[in-house]
Every structure is written in C-alpha cells, then in structure tokens.
Amino acid sequence: MTNPVANLLFASSIFAARLCSFRAVASSSPRTFSTSIPSSSLPRSSRFKGKTFIVTGGTSGVGESIALQLAAEGASGVSVVGRNETRGNGVVSKLRDLGCEGLFIKASMDSVPDVQAVVPKHEERFGVAHGLVNSAGDTGRGWLKDQSVESWDRLFAVNARAPFILTQAATNSMIRSKIQGSVVNIITITSHGGQPYLCGYAASKGALSTFTKNAAHQLRKDRIKCNGINIGWTASAAEHKLQVEETGDEKWLEKAGEKVPFGRLVQPGDIAELACFLLSDKSGVCTGSVIDFDQMVIGGYD
Ligand SMILES: NC(=O)c1ccc[n+]([C@@H]2O[C@H](COP(=O)([O-])OP(=O)(O)OC[C@H]3O[C@@H](n4cnc5c(N)ncnc54)[C@H](OP(=O)(O)O)[C@@H]3O)[C@@H](O)[C@H]2O)c1
User: Where is the Ketoreductase domain (predicted)?
Assistant: First the structure.
C-alpha cells in the first residue's frame, strides 16, 4: 500500500476495510481477478436437476457466482435479476453454456412494482421456483450525524423490503405447490454493528438478518428453509480496480492477504458453495441460521 489512508485501513482489521464496497470477483482462485468464471473450475453435480431458482444481484459478483454454480450443479432454469441488461444477458449466456436456461429479469430493487413482478415473470417461464437467493444489495455510505432520510429509506428498500416482498411471493407459491424450497439471504458481517460510515447499511442488513429468522420460523412447518450468510471481506474485480486507482499498487490483494489470518480474502466462489449447500437437500433441516462467513470472530479479543 502506498498511501497512508490505505495503510491505516489494512492495519485496523477487516472491519476497517471497505468491507461493503467490494464487488465480488467471479473467480474461485485466490489472489486472481477475473470477470468471468471459467466453467471448468465450477464444482459439478446433478443435485439441482429439474429445479429452478431466482437470484437477485445475479448480474454480478456473489449473485453471479451462485447462479453459475446452480447451473453447474444441474439447475434447469435460473432467473438473474438486476438492472444492468448487458451484464444480465452475459450471465444468461454463461448459464446456457452450462446447459441451464437463463432469464434476465430487469428490476430495480427499490421499486415495489419491479420487485413484485419478479416472481410472476419467473413462474411464467419456469413454473414455481425451488429456491430464492436475495443477493442484490445497496452498500451506500452514511454516518449517524448526517445520513439523509432518503438514503436510509433506499437502503431499507433494497436490502430489507425487496427480500421481504420476494420471499413472501416465492414461498406462498412454494406452499401452494407443496414445494419444500429454500431461501438464502446474502447479508453481511456488518449486520452485527458495522463501521460508523455504514449506519443505514448495517441497520438495513440487521433487519434482513432478523427477517431471515422470523421467516424461517414461520415457514418451518411447510418444510421451507430460510437461512442467511454474513459475508466478510470478499475480493472482487471492482475492488481491485478501486484499490489500484487509489493506491497505484497492483499487488494490494497479496498484501491484504498477508494481513488476514487465512492468508487470503473470501472469494465469491466460497460463498456460492455455502449458498448452494443451503439451497440443496444436503442442508437437511438447517433453517433460521445466519452464518458468519468471515475470518474474524465476532466477540473474539486478542
Ligand atoms: N463483496 C463484499 O465484500 C460484501 C461484503 C458484505 C456483504 N456483501 C453483500 O453481498 C451482496 C452481493 O454483493 P457483491 O459483492 O456481489 O456486489 P456486486 O458485484 O456489486 O453485486 C451487487 C448486485 O446487486 C445488484 N443491485 C444493487 N443494487 C440494486 C438495485 N437497486 N436494484 C437491483 N439490483 C441491485 C446489482 O445488479 P445491477 O448492477 O445489475 O443492478 C448486482 O448484481 C450484497 O447484498 C452485499 O451487501 C458483499
């Protein structure tokens, strides 16, 4: 790291880094960046054969990684939800290459009508979904002293209200069709409290965490699972760009890796593995769990 601000960020633990500005890299290999997943590196199986899924935030990063792993493990259809048509169609074409039908659903998660249209659009093409992944997230900054009401409301709309609307619609359909489906919410380690500049973000993801448990409790007798993943510092192509722009240091990731206990940051592929486990029958009766996916332990002290 060449600039003092960046040095300070790295030195003051994972929570001090731009935890939530990371755009997930679509690669499972540590310390490398790529914007596309080589399909040869995806774990293969047929455990999702005949099943279909909705993945918000599927146009990029963690969501894209989950969508592609679902396809590599036999899913017959995946709806990729987001705003960016070019990236969305790009993911759809990668899904096809993996033998899975893809559908890009253009939707802004802060628009109620857009969000309400997602599940019907998926069902029109594929029938009732077997799983829903809420990965779209707004990581907007804001301090207590001056966060605007508008930005607070937008964060809650994208990070908490949209997952609520989608979970309600998707699971009502599952119940009607007697499908024992699964919902996975991509949350953040910041939901435990978070950095001061992420006031609204942390609170909105905290709401998603509580919603995950409440929904799981309500859905358990229909044998529908609902779990969450609290993601920690995840390497991403966008962050690489940001870091290189700010520090001029192409090797920032290597140095960041040296400062964390496991010698590397989390990769989107790591998260996709857990999400797919939670979406699969392998996770058995596991529901209402919010799993910290990080290498720093909440509540631990040196
Ligand atoms: N990467 C990390 O270090 C990290 C850490 C903690 C938590 N997370 C969480 O992980 C999730 C995925 O993030 P990521 O790292 O994969 O970032 P990313 O690559 O930037 O992906 C974010 C996704 O969310 C979608 N999205 C954002 N705002 C939206 C909106 N208003 N309407 C519709 N779609 C929207 C984007 O789609 P379009 O661009 O197509 O609209 C994109 O597909 C987020 O919920 C984030 O909070 C990530």
Answer: 51-236
